[in-house]
């Protein structure tokens, strides 16, 4: 059967970009026959960006509640916390030893930090931790551990999945065919959802719309989407309109065509924002109540995650034994 895997870093509150780029397609995929799904909370990855323990814990709870509220069925899907699987850091080391340093030098996130430091006249690696540099290897271990074929993600993660493929190929070349070569699964229409300011919606740009903010708060956030200064009655352009792109990520083809027509006819920005709010709310509202009850029941979430980790470890412990043997390490009894 086809194996689908994806994770979300536990550094903040889930936003619409996480939902349309990863959560919604992943939950949909998990419902098809002949698919085995692996969805997890990337809390080891969170340590790279966040040194506040309470924030990591809160985010883990919120992201777990989000997956469940969005319809993930923990009986059907392997749903777990990355740090509950000790075989993942172990595999990270095995992969580290077959990964060229030059490959990691080319990672976008690392390069962005280097460029920022150089632009500020600092040492290129000034504030760069070895964790940031190694980020793609840890992610490679996440993916390769469970032999995932497809990884549903937004466009910003494609390079990481290509690197995981490279690592799998290097390892297979040296030690035999142990790893499956993974592929990114990208929904073109939502591959990069823009945020309030039109740049990619991202925790690091502080331009996000929270997925499960209370209704009135979501309306206010949507009212904050940047638009141009065209007055009511003046035709609007859909090209480069963040509001239009976000609408498209939630609406049917017919609804999107109707909004394009309204743009051409000069809809007021305030009215367009109200339409967007109503369209998103129609999809989110039924999940919101469920989310709130889950987030207020941490014990239930904890039990679900532990049960998921126990199932995932049946696979990971058997596989790491195979890999240890392949590279010539003694197997722990
Ligand atoms: P993270 O936590 O930054 O984002 C989680 C998922 O949301 C997608 N996403 C978006 N999609 C469309 N438009 C946006 N504006 C947007 N913002 C975020 C991301 O592409 C991602 O799919 N390294 C990963 C987490 C991770 C992972 C993995 C993913 C760790 N191990 C293994 C897949 C497989 C990350 O930081 O995603």
What value does the Rg take, in angstroms? 21 Å
CATH superfamily membership of the largest domain: HUPs
Number of helices: 13
Tell me the number of strands: 5
CATH topology of the largest domain: Rossmann fold
- Please state the structural category: mainly alpha
Highest-level CATH class of the largest domain: Alpha Beta
Strand content: 5-15%
Query: What's the CATH architecture of the largest domain?
Result: 3-Layer(aba) Sandwich
What's the number of structural domains? Answer: 2
Summarize the structure.
The chain is mostly helical. It is built from 13 helices and 5 strands.
Task: Explain what this protein looks like in three dimensions.
L-tryptophan binds at residue 142. Belongs to the class-I aminoacyl-tRNA synthetase family. ATP binds at residues 9-11, 17-18, 154-156, 193, 200-204. Homodimer. It is an enzyme of class 6 (ligase). The protein is mainly alpha-helical. The chain folds into 2 domains: 2-193 and 297-327, Rossmann fold (3-Layer(aba) Sandwich), CATH 3.40.50.620; 212-292, Tyrosyl-Transfer RNA Synthetase. 56% of the residues lie in helices and 8% in strands. It has helices at residues 16-30, 43-49, 53-69, 87-96, 101-105, 108-119, 130-145, 158-175, 215-223, 242-250, 253-264, 269-295, 298-327, and strands spanning 2-9, 35-42, 78-81, 150-152, 183-185. The strands form 2 sheets. It has a 3-stranded parallel sheet. A two-stranded parallel sheet has the order 4-5. Helix 2 runs antiparallel to helix 7 (130-145). The two termini are 31 Å apart. The mean pLDDT is 96. The structure holds tryptophanyl-5'AMP (TYM). Tryptophanyl-5'AMP (TYM) binds at residues 5-9, 17-18, 21-22, 42, 45, 139, 142-143, 151, 153-154, 156-157, 190, 192-193, 200-202.
């Amino acid at each position: 059967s086809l194996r689908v895997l994806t994770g979300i870093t536990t550094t903040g509150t889930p936003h619409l970009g996480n939902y349309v780029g990863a959560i919604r397609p992943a939950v949909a995929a998990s419902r098809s026959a002949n698919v085995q799904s692996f969805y997890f909370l990337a809390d080891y990855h969170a340590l790279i960006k966040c040194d506040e323990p309470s924030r990591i814990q809160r985010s883990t709870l919120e992201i777990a509640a989000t997956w469940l509220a969005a319809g993930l069925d923990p009986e059907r899907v392997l749903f777990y916390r990355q740090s509950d699987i000790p075989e993942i850091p172990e595999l990270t080391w095995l992969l580290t030893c077959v990964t060229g340093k030059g490959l990691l030098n080319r990672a976008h996130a690392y390069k962005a930090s280097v460029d920022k430091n150089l632009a500020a006249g600092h040492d290129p690696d000034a504030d760069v931790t070895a964790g940031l540099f190694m980020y793609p290897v840890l992610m490679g271990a996440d993916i390769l551990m469970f032999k995932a074929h497809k990884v549903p993600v937004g466009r910003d993660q494609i390079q990481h999945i290509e690197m995981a493929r490279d690592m799998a190929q290097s390892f297979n070349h040296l030690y035999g065919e142990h790893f499956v070569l993974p592929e990114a699964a990208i929904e073109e229409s939502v591959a990069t959802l823009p945020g309030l300011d039109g740049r990619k919606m991202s925790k690091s740009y502080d331009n996000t719309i929270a997925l499960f903010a209370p209704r009135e708060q979501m309306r206010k956030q949507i009212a904050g989407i940047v638009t141009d200064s065209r007055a009511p009655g003046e035709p609007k352009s859909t090209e480069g309109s963040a509001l239009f792109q976000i609408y498209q990520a939630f609406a049917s083809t017919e609804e999107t065509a109707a909004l394009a027509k309204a743009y051409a006819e000069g809809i007021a920005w305030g009215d367009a924002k109200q339409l967007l709010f109503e369209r998103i709310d129609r999809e989110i509202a039924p999940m919101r109540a469920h989310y709130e009850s889950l987030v207020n029941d941490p014990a239930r979430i904890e039990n679900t995650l532990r049960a998921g980790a126990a199932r995932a470890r049946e696979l990971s412990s058997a596989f790491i034994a195979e890999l240890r043997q392949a590279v010539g390490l003694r197997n722990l009894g």
